[in-house]
Design brief:
heterodimer; A: mainly beta; 3-stranded antiparallel sheet; 45% strand; B: mainly beta; 7-stranded mixed sheet; 54% strand
């Protein structure tokens, strides 16, 4: 059972906008910034969003992060087939004094 | 350009100690605000954070695995080593190391970027 809760799956058609949620608590998302990682099949995770809503250079602006209270979201607009991947949220947890990941959301592009 | 690569055994027996090495380039682990972390992923399962070592040799461990983990660094060799004792089949996973940005004064982790390619470790007799 992950400290951060994500839906196991999400789906959309090309061109659509999808949102993936990440629910936590006051000791993690409510206090610390959130990262989002994309993991394509058979590859290492790649940073998509950090500090809640910042994109590293090279990440398309189709990907955007937001946070409100103890929940965070990743939005993907203009969905493309290459976006089909597993997405993970992550943050620091003050109570655990450690880093926590969500359980991951498998995004299917129909 | 920052790169990291994990190395170590692909197969270990139950009760043995696993030693993994992360060899990196493109940054120095003596620079303030820099750290290296270890994360693992069992086949078909989610990511799990293991450990973090900071530029000043401060260390953090996953609370659930703390008694089994030891992380060290060799700044001159650009390497970080993770040891995990008493290996069990449930520890079968791909193990990743990653470059981390952390708060220079708060020590709070900010992000992992980039990650190494990972190395699959199987625990079996």
């Amino acid at each position: 059972q992950s400290v951060l809760t994500q839906p196991p799956s999400a789906s959309g058609t090309p061109g659509q906008r999808v949102t993936i949620s990440c629910s936590g608590s006051s000791s993690n998302i409510g206090t610390r910034t959130v990262n989002w990682y994309q993991q394509l099949p058979g590859t290492a995770p790649k940073l998509l969003v950090y500090s809640d809503d910042q994109r590293p250079s090279g990440v398309p602006d189709r990907f955007s992060g937001s946070k409100s209270g103890t929940s965070a979201s990743l939005a993907i607009s203009g969905l493309q087939s290459e976006d089909e991947a597993e997405y993970y949220c992550a943050t620091w947890d003050d109570s655990l004094n450690g880093l926590v990941f969500g359980g991951g959301t498998r995004l299917n592009v129909l | 350009q920052i790169t990291l690569k994990e190395s170590g055994p692909t197969l270990v027996k139950p009760t043995q100690t696993l030693t993994l090495t992360c060899t990196f380039s493109g940054f120095s682990l003596s620079t303030s605000g820099v750290a290296v972390g270890w994360i693992r992923q069992p086949p078909g399962k989610a990511l799990e954070w293991l450990s973090l070592i900071y530029w000043d040799d401060d260390k953090r461990y996953s609370p659930s695995l703390k008694s089994r983990l030891t992380i060290t660094k060799d700044t001159s060799k650009n390497q970080v080593v993770l040891k995990m004792t008493n290996m069990d089949p449930v520890d079968t996973a791909t193990y990743y190391c990653a470059h981390a940005i952390v708060g220079e004064y708060s020590y709070i982790w900010n992000r992992f970027d980039p990650w190494g390619q990972g190395t699959l470790v199987t625990v079996s007799s």
